[in-house]
Design brief:
This protein is an alpha+beta fold. It contains nine helices and 16 strands.
């Protein structure tokens, strides 16, 4: 049986362990989680692909031979300086627990651990073999966490539930992303004689304006807004009376399932070529979009588990990137769900509501025990 008091105390203890990323050091919180699960008699280990970047894996035998992964993450963003509450105090006011990571993602982490604790305590065998992976480095790209766990086949589940959402939302689709930098070279000259030079900033302005006016073709997705471009940074020139011989700017593309990063980059280069031939494009990050049908047996089973407890889970899409995209190239159906509070992730005075965490742990235990066939 899910123990509410134990769940609340566990959430508080997790919040009180600093796991800010950057700088990135999950050893202490990983050690806590490892020790907690080991006391339950569960097979548990710590895996590291980089010094100080600890991932916790635990295993629970199921009934069918199929494998379910549940994976929250251990790290948080940096606290910043605008908190009114102690970010590591785990203070309870009313029905809220305040603290860094309360919603993203230590509340979800606590729910997963409590669900496992309850299954073991009650002698319930989950439908599928259960892999629990509390991962490092999610807030900075998962290069020391989920990505190498999958690529090196340390984990290879049949299904994956990513615990990194809020308000019982079930995320089945998300946009892809491209982060890139464009560097333009011009020709320097005196600002009083601009015709003698080539102004790299002017070229950049024309390129940006052209890109923003374009309307790429795409398939509509009822869960997602249309594709977007954001100009994140722009720098250029050395002095007001000098024609700028350099300019660089960064773009953030978000694109829908059915669109490809390759076609976006091809079009980008065609656009830039209209205004300058002296440029470089540096792609810093690319993630493909993701989609799993709402009627998929995995999604339906998760929804049923919530409804059995009177929870109205909502199937949604994510405009931002989550780690569910990393599963698609492995052929692993994945969704993201969670029990935090909307609008709290990455904010000062982050909190999670205790009733949500309790219901979330109940739903998660029910889902893991009864599985996809109920």
């Amino acid at each position: 049986m899910i123990n509410k008091k134990r769940l609340v105390l566990l959430t508080q203890n997790l919040i009180r362990i600093n796991s800010e990323n950057p700088p990135g050091d999950e050893r202490k919180i990983a050690g806590f989680v490892h020790g907690y699960l080991a006391k339950l008699g569960i097979k548990t280990r710590i895996v590291e692909f980089k010094k100080k970047r600890s991932n916790v894996l635990a295993y629970l035998k199921g009934r069918t031979g199929k494998t379910m992964l549940i994976t929250p993450h251990l790290d948080t963003v940096c606290a910043g300086k605008s908190w009114k509450h102690d970010p590591f105090g785990a203070e309870i006011i009313g029905d809220k627990i305040y603290g860094l990571g309360a919603t993203d993602c230590k509340g979800n982490l606590a729910c997963a651990i409590e669900a496992i604790n309850s299954l073991v305590e009650d002698g319930k065998t989950p439908e599928m073999d259960l892999i629990f992976a509390a991962t490092a480095d999610e807030e900075c790209g998962s290069g020391s966490g989920l990505i190498p766990l999958l690529n090196k086949k340390v984990i290879n589940p049949d299904f994956a539930l990513v615990l990194d959402s809020d308000e019982f939302n079930i995320i089945i689709t998300q946009k892809g992303l491209i982060h890139l930098r464009i560097k333009i070279e011009g020709k320097r000259s005196h600002g009083a004689y601009p015709w003698r030079g080539v102004n790299a900033i002017e070229a950049a302005v024309k390129i940006i304006n052209d890109l923003l006016c374009q309307r790429p073709a795409y398939l509509k997705n009822k869960y997602l807004r249309p594709p977007t471009i954001n100009i994140g940074t722009i720098r250029g020139g050395d002095k007001v009376n000098v024609v700028a011989d350099w300019c660089e700017f960064e773009l953030d593309f978000r694109f829908l399932p059915g669109m490809s990063a390759r076609s976006i980059l091809t079009n980008l280069k065609k656009t830039v070529n209209k205004y300058t031939k002296n440029y470089k494009v540096e792609v810093n990050d690319t993630q493909d979009p993701y989609f799993i049908p709402e009627g998929h047996v995995f999604v339906a089973a998760l929804n049923r588990a919530m409804r059995r407890l009177g929870i109205k889970g909502k199937v949604k899409g994510s405009e931002g990137a989550t780690v569910i995209t990393f599963f698609q190239h492995k052929g692993i159906p994945a969704v993201s769900a969670g029990f935090g509070s909307s609008g709290c992730a990455h904010t000062a005075d982050e909190f999670a509501r205790i009733p949500n965490l309790y219901k979330g742990a109940l739903a998660l235990e029910d889902f893991l025990w009864k599985g996809l066939s109920f």
